[in-house]
Amino acid sequence: MVLSLYDYVNFTATQGGLECQQAWAVLGEPTPRQINQALSEQQAALAVFADARPRVTLVDHRGLMQFAFGFPAEGIQPGDLVPPGDLDRPSPAASMFLGVDCIHLSEEGYRILGRNLWQSYYAQRLGDGDGDGDGDGDGDGDGDGGGGGDPGTVPTAPTMLSATPTSATSVALTWTDASADESAFVVERRVGQQAFGEIARRPAGTRTWTDQGLEPATTYEYRVFAINAQGASARSNLASVTTLLSPSTCTADESTLCLRDGRFEVRARWTDFEMRTGDARVVTLDDRRAESSDSGLFYFFSNDNWEQQVKVLDGCGVNGQFWVFSAATTNVGFELVVVDTVTGRRIIYENPPGVAAPAITDTAAFPCSSPQP
Amino acid sequence: MPSSLRRPLSPGLAAISPGILCVLLLAGCFSQTVEAQTPRVLLVGDSWAEFMWSNRTLREVFVENGRPDLAERGAVTAIGGTTAAQWAGSQGLELISEELAAWPTIDTVQLTVGGNDLLAGASGGGWYVGIPQQELDAFTTRVVRDVTIVVDHALAQIRRSRWCSASTTM
Q1: For A304-358, what is each residue's pLDDT tens digit?
Q2: Is A333 helix (H, G, I), strand (E, B) or coil?
Q3: Nearest residue on chain B to A222, judged by CA atoms?
Q4: Model confidence at A370, in pLDDT bands (50, 70, 90)?
Q5: Which residue, among A135, A193, A349, has the nearest Cα to B61 in the 3D structure?
Q6: Chain A contact for B170, CB < 8 A?
Q7: Nearest by CB to B7, which of A102, A135, A355?
Q8: 12-71 in B: which are within 8 Å (CB) of A?
Q9: pLDDT tens for each residue of A221-270
């Protein structure tokens, strides 16, 4: 039995979205420290309960979003804030659902929680099928690949490996250094079902590294292990990632908006209640496309029935980001896909069928400058 | 944490929102392709459990770690907006029992509750800025008590279902 609790909320950067203002007011407008402290105290009480029950494991997720996403605009990079993180900060807006939900995490955020659950619980509970659940396949249950685990022997395996695409040809890796006696970290990579091969060695204490020279739109798997004079640790978790699409140009057509002088390609696809799907079409008025430099209009079923307005705004002077805003007057499902043709970065905003579409107010959608290697 | 912010649910656990219906429909379709996977985990709790179920997060992590044969369930026990108190009530406990009985290979329950209790504010009996210590203590005691009820119930059910199905030890 596992208690999977929470990471920090974000009432700081999400005041415009999804009723967050009201939720924050109900709590007496807490600072990040106040609400983080309250969450931590509740978790501490449950930890006491769990500690007294040998069949119950509590998994602490606090600070994982700060660790994985950082606050790059403030010079805090992924990997800088180690869990449980900085109580004076919320979870980063970039880690929240659509960037505007004050409570829920993005799909990547929940994936990070899932990996934490694996490392903290499931690897031992469900393991690797060799019966001991240690993930190393050697059957001795110590998780070290057969070499022991006592002080002075091989280092402890790194954990929480996470891979994030930063361009069409590069991937940023972050991991947790769980040992105090490693001499280096070894990074391994593979494509498909090929064998893993070593691609880098990084000094002791390293927690981030960027892999470059990759193929666009290709899925890679990574793992990391630590080494010292006594040998190698067990491998970290696997991190799978797909590089971004190659930079391209936007070609406007009946289903494609090209905003901000063609830098951003915008398309949408709808799904109705009977799971039928189709491309959204650009609204036309007197044979003219409903499109300006900043914004455009889509319809799903009829040119008279406008469903979705989309804007890509230049927020570079404010926070160094292009912003994506959208309002859809529909409860039909849709996927709104916005592609930065300069970097290949793509964001998909989803609304399931049957849910009145919330406003999209993503003020951290695309960095204004190209990512640095 | 509260999905009442995103997808309000009526207080009764028996109420099924359109979103949950959608999840149920998807689960029905999905089962066509996952018959080889063995359900080992039951997700129980609020919207954080529901998001992990909707995203199939655990399934993805199992694959990442070389266990594509494993799967989780959460179609009827991962419900946004729910509180520890609701899960500790008879309807909540019954839902857990029914799912564990229906899926006897499940031997782990992953429980995520307490967030909605915390964020209910003063009017909802939750935490708020300046809450008196005595009130905070009573709140914390109540959440721990409710979690205890759910945990004990689930562990008893898991033990029984394991015994009936002669599954692996816990």
Answers
A1: 999 999 999 999 888 888 999 999 999 998 999 999 888 777 888 888 888 899 9
A2: strand
A3: B64
A4: low
A5: A135
A6: yes
A7: A355
A8: 18-19, 21-22, 40-41, 45, 47-49, 51-52, 55, 57-58, 60-62, 64-67, 69-70
A9: 999 999 888 788 889 998 888 887 777 789 999 999 999 999 999 999 99
Q: Are strands A333-340 and A264-271 parallel, antiparallel or unpaired?
A: antiparallel
Q: By three-state DSSP, how is residue A214 classified?
A: coil
Q: Could you give the CA distance from residue A283 to residue A295 in angstroms, rounded to a whole number?
A: 12
Q: Residue A134 pLDDT > 60, yes or no?
A: no
Q: What was the pLDDT predicted at A135?
A: 37
Find, in chain B, the residue whose alpha carbon is nearest to that of A20: B5
Q: How far is CA A222 from the centre of its chain?
A: 16
Q: What is the mean pLDDT of chain A?
A: 85
**E strand or H helix at A247, and its extent?**
none
Which residue shows structure tokens 């499109």?
Answer: A291
B119–A102 CB contact, under 8 Å: no
Contact across the interface for B64 and A102, Cβ inside 8 Å: no
CB contact under 8 A, B22 and A354: yes
CA A68 to chain centre: 8
ipTM of the complex: 0.79
* Higher-confidence position of A101 and A151: A101
How far is Cα B63 from Cα A221, in angstroms, rounded to an integer? 12
**Which of the four pLDDT bands, split at 50, 70 and 90, describes residue B120?**
very high
**Which residue, A223, A201, A200, is CA-closest to A212?**
A200
Strands (DSSP E) contained in A24-75 are 57-59
